[in-house]
Amino acid sequence: MNLAEILxxxxxxxxxxxxxxxxxxWLKDIPQLISFDxxxxxxxxxxxxxxxxxxxxxxxxxxxxxxxxxxxxxFLKYEDFSAANHLKKExxxxxxxxxxxxxxxxxxxxxxxxxxxxxxxxxETVILPDNSNLELIEIVNMPRxxxxxxxxxxxxxxxxxxxxxxxxxxFNSLRGHEKLTVLDLSLNxxxxxxxxxxxxxxxxxxxxxxxxxxxxxxxxxxxxxxKMLRILSIKANQSELKKLRSDLPNCFIN
Length: 254
Fold this sequence. Notes:
This protein has helices at residues 3-12, 20-27, 50-65, 78-85, 219-224, 238-247, and strands spanning 93-97, 103-105, 114-118, 125-127, 136-140, 147-149, 159-163, 182-184, 205-208, 231-234, 252-253.
């Protein structure tokens, strides 16, 4: 079997309960996923159920994202280390956690494809390489982050997570990201305008958990513009969920 066939088989034989031990055993013989292209076409399999798509999300988390090792060589102060060592451009992936830098300047990382930044609580600005090959960006729990430079020019992005970054407000920089397939904006309760979503028409998986999205008057109209949307995770009460499911009949909503 080729990789797509292996993944399809594993997805359709996923454990019912998704318990920790069951998932660990199920994941064992799934190979590491190097590129988004390894699994991107699976989002559009019409026969996939909600459980199948959830299984795909679990595989992506464990075999595509969590396989990126934490970069320990910066000694928790990337900006000082990079200035002193003239970092080269050959990094294909970076995972920077709990760093003490105010600015994470990655503008010279022209080969970068995967970027994970987590719990860098001092950081106010992230500078991405301009018009790069980045396909994955995860920025999580960065409470002082206000600027992400060059986000608007990275049009090859397919997976973007901006979770628990409540001071970041420039979501209009996502407009026109036509390749964006997975978007996670969970735990950002300060977003008041979701109109930018209507300009990201190829999103298949959208996570809006613990946001104010469902309270926005035009949110159904905005979400209806996402014709390819397969899964929506959103904070909502039962009546709100009922309305969303009625208005978005082709989308699994939980």
